[in-house]
Every structure is written in C-alpha cells, then in structure tokens.
Amino acid sequence: MGALVVSTGSTTPAGQPADGAASSAPRPAAVVVLAAGQGTRMRSSRPKVLHAVGGRSLLGHAMVAGRALEPQTLAVVVRHGRDLVAAEVERVDAEALVVDQDEVPGTGRAAQCALEALDARGPLDGPVVVTASDVPLLDGETLAQLVAAHVTDGNAVTILTTVVEDATGYGRIVREDGTGDVLAIVEHKDATDAQREIREINTSIFVFDADVLRRGLASLGTDNAQGEMYLTDVVAFARAEGRTVRAVITDDPVAVEGTNDRLALSVLGKEMNRRILERWMLDGVTVVDPQTTWVDVDVELAPDVTLLPGTQLHGATTVAEGATVGPDTTLTDVEVGPGATVVRTHGSLAVIGAGASVGPFAYLRPGTVLGERGKIGTFVETKNAEIGAGAKVPHLSYIGDATIGEGSNVGAATVTLNYDGVAKHRTVIGAHAKVGGDNMLVAPVTVGDGAYTAAGSVITRDVPAGALGVSRAQQRNVECWVERRRPGTPAAEAAARARADAGPDPADPAPVPAADAAPEGTSH
Ligand code: UD1
Ligand code: CA
Fold it and tell me: How far is the centre of ligand 2, averaged over its atoms, from the C-alpha of 106 (Å)?
C-alpha cells in the first residue's frame, strides 16, 4: 500500500520506488510510539489507541508499522489507561518495551521518558523514529522512506509533513527561504497570524538523531501556550546547533491522518478497507461490491476467491482458491477450503473443507470442522462439531459436541441434545449412517457405522452398526373422525367427496393397521 513520499528541500529524489527505499533503509536504533495521550475527543471509557480499524487497534497498527523497520528496540510510551494499553502492547508484540510517562505533560516528555528507558539498556546511537499512535494508515514502507531520506541527507531531524486545507490545531512547518530546510515547528496555539497561514503541518512522525534528541529534550522547558514539553521544539534546538532539519511531504495525506474522534475512526476505517480490497482485487480476488465488503488486515485470500456483497471477513480468516463467500456472510477466524461456498452464514473459529457447502442461514460456532464436500445447510447451528467428508446436515438442525462420520446424512430438524443441565455430552455418529428427520439424539449416545434411525425418534441408547434405531409411538387412524366430529367443515366435505370418489363406504371401517417401522420421512 505504501505512500509515495515526495521529498522537497532535500536531495532525496522524489517518488522513489517504495520497495527500493524500504530495503535500502538502515535499521533505526529504536522506534518510539507515543501512546500516553488521553484522546478525549473519542468520548470513550476505552483509551483511544485501543479503538480498532481493519480488525487491529490503532496502537497495533502503529506498532506493526514500526516493527517493519526492524529496530533494535520498539518502545511504546503509556500513561492514560496504562494497564489496558500496556496489555495491548504485550499482546501485539511481546518483544516491545513499555515505557511509563510521568505526570509531566507533552510529547517532549513522552519522548524523554522513552529515551531514558532505552539509554538504560545501553546508550542509544543513530536514527530514532518517533511516531504517533493514532495514525492507522501509516505503514512501514513510508517510515522506511523517511529513515532513508534522513540517513542520505545526514539530517539531525527529518519530519514527515503534509499539506492540508485547514491546519487549525496542528503544528506548522516553518521553512527557511532559499534552502527550504525547516527552521521550526510552531504549535497552533503559539503561532503568529502569519504562521497560522502555513498549511504544511507536522504529522508527529519523525526521525531524530539519537544524540540531538537526547540533548534537545534535556534543553526543553514548558514555557508555551499549553505548559507542556513540546517534542517539536527539538527542531529549533537542532537548528541552533547548526544542524540540518528537513521535511518530507507525503502525497498521501490520509496515510498520515490522526484519529481524533469517532468520525475520523469511521473515515479511516473505510479508507483502510478500500485499500485492503484494492490490493486483493489486484491479486486476483473478485470483490463484487467493495462498498459492502469488509476485510480485516490479517485476512488471507487466494486467487479466484469471490466475495459477494455484504461479506465481512475478520481476524485470521483465510479463504482458499476458488471459494465463494457471501452474500451477507460474516466470518471471524474461519478457514474456508478451496472451492467451498459459504452463503448467508455467520461463523467463528470454524474450518470449512474443500468443496464444502454452507448455508444459506447457517451459524457456525467455535470448533466446527466440516470435511471435504460436506454440507451444513439451511437454518443449521453447529458447535464443537466434526462433520466428516461428504457428510450432510442439510436442514433445520442443531449439532453441538458431536462427531459425524464421512458420508453420513442427518435428517431435517434433528438435534443433538448435548446438555443435561449440568454437563455437556458428546454425540457420535459413525460413517455412512442415516439419521432420520426430526430425531432427538440424547447425548452421550452413539449411532454406529452404517446405522439408520427412524424419523421422529428420540435416541437415548446407542444404535449398533448397521441397526435401525426406532423410538416413537405407533400410528393409528380413526376412520371418518372428521365427518363425525367436524361436520359441515370444508375438511369434512372434502373427505366425503374423496370417499365418494373412492367408491362405496366400507360397511365397517377397517381396524387400524400396525404402523410400519420403516424409516420413511427422512430427508436428503
Ligand atoms: C502534536 C504536535 C503537533 C502535530 C500534531 C499532529 C507537539 C507539541 N505537537 O500535537 O505539532 O501537528 O501532534 O497530530 O508535539 N502523547 C504522549 N504524551 C503526552 C502527549 C501526547 O504520549 O503527554 C502522544 C499522544 O498519545 C499522541 C501523540 O503524542 O499519539 C500526539 O499527541 P496529541 O495530543 O494528539 O497531539 P498534539 O499535542 O495536539
Ligand atoms: Ca495535546
């Protein structure tokens, strides 16, 4: 996806190929992610950086982008919602260093706390990348291009900037006439009217020389409109030492946009999705309606997958070659096999085999494993269920805590009764078995290989291999009941006509025959 970075006022050629820049970029000594801020405009009890787009927290996006540079240390500065944020750092990247910011406010103090913690592991030397934690579309390639420009130009500080229509609230980039180098970053609240006319802004994504950063931070005060230590003041410090500070303008402003409120969260989430889908389409995936299709960052799709409208693929979902998913399907951490079809389905932590068929209106709960060419059909719910190759559960069933062998067929409206009120039990159906329609399988219970059960049975005892299990009341017919008990109704009239057509009434209704226990009424 990487944004092309256009360098101005520097010797770096514009629009260098992303890959080349990324691979030639030197490894920074450290990447520091600033994540101690509060994010009040989210109006959330959750720390801002834990809000997610594309199935990954804002913090997670920042950390993944930073880790792509392969720094010696990836550090994250935390304070607001400290324990929750630190837990997310650990979850995303167990190697990352959590640094606590103290009560001194400001981005400068955040960077200083990080530097102290990093220096404690051995004095830091070389380029240090500092990034904000709320810029989800920023990727490793863009950061790598920034590091490459920093090293090539021998800068003390390199700032990623962008030009916006309305720069209100942002730090302005003050450039030197002639060279175009950066003289200072002036915060909106501290800026003069003339400086507020500047539309080039600081994105809070930088590369610093470690030594300049260390000494610059040590020189910082809080004598400014917000009474904070400004990281941005390190720029003026470097200039005062006669060092070079340059800005690299990205031509992809969205990629450096921060997430200040829920409107931005939605806009950036949508844009991330658009970019993800664009990448998959170029890789050979058909996305019929990108507007209604949502695919998380970590999802993997193979060539010739088709995603129909209303499909959402979350988490670690993978879809293999030639499979079709949708319409109106939501899968989280589901593995879809090659050539499978999944229609109007809600699923999580399930595996769907090659050529298998699921839905419409199926609910796959965790632990569902459907074999090759198997079928989970309409209005079927499954959980902890292994359904073998070619086995079918076509209609209106609940299959929970069950194993179904290959080639077996489970009749419509069959339920595995796995819960006795205290514990869960397993139902085991062998290979090539045929469970009749409307069966209640009271677990623990086993239906053997090649066994049948009769329609409407309540199976409480094991059915041996090859046996027919029957458990239901016998049928009796009470002749002429409707004409006697419901005279004058359309039913009685229809019955009378039918009996007249059939010939003279039997003098004496035949006795009720014994019901045949054949497994009629099963379904396919
Ligand atoms: C900062 C920059 C400003 C830039 C803007 C871009 C400074 C002084 N200003 O503004 O030039 O245009 O970002 O969005 O740096 N943070 C901490 N600890 C703190 C304060 C902030 O870790 O004490 C973190 C936040 O979590 C966030 C980042 O630093 O990731 C930027 O903070 P934020 O408050 O959003 O930016 P501003 O200070 O308004
Ligand atoms: Ca602030």
Answer: 7
Give the residue, by CA position, lying nearest to ligand 1 atom 19. Answer: 106
The answer on pLDDT for 262 being more than 70 is: yes
Q: Cα angle vertex 4, ends 3, 10, to 5°?
A: 130
Q: Which ligand is nearest to the CA of 169?
A: 1
Domains of the chain, first to last:
4-256 (3.90.550.10), 284-469 (2.160.10.10)
Residue type, 97: L
In tens, the pLDDT along 30-43 reads: 999 999 998 999 99
**Nearest bound ligand to CA 162?**
1
List, for residues 157-166, the tens digit of each pLDDT value. Answer: 999 999 999 9
Q: For the residues 340-356, what does the mean pLDDT come to?
A: 98
DSSP run (H or E) holding 268? helix 262-282
Put residue 521 in one of left, alpha, beta given phi > 0 → left and psi -120 to 50 → alpha.
left
The protein residue with its alpha carbon nearest to ligand 1, atom 1, reads: 204
- Which atom of ligand 1 lies at the shortest distance from residue 133's CA? 30
Q: Which of 244, 31, 39, 46 is nearest to 138 (CA)?
A: 31
pLDDT tens per residue, range 187-237? 999 999 999 999 999 999 999 999 999 999 999 999 999 999 999 999 999
- As given in the structure block, the two tokens for residue 352 are 């769907």
Atom number in ligand 1 closest to CA 36: 22
425 is catalytic: no
Tell me the pTM: 0.90
Q: Which helix (H) or strand (E) holds 280?
A: helix 262-282
Distance CA 21, CA 30 (A): 18
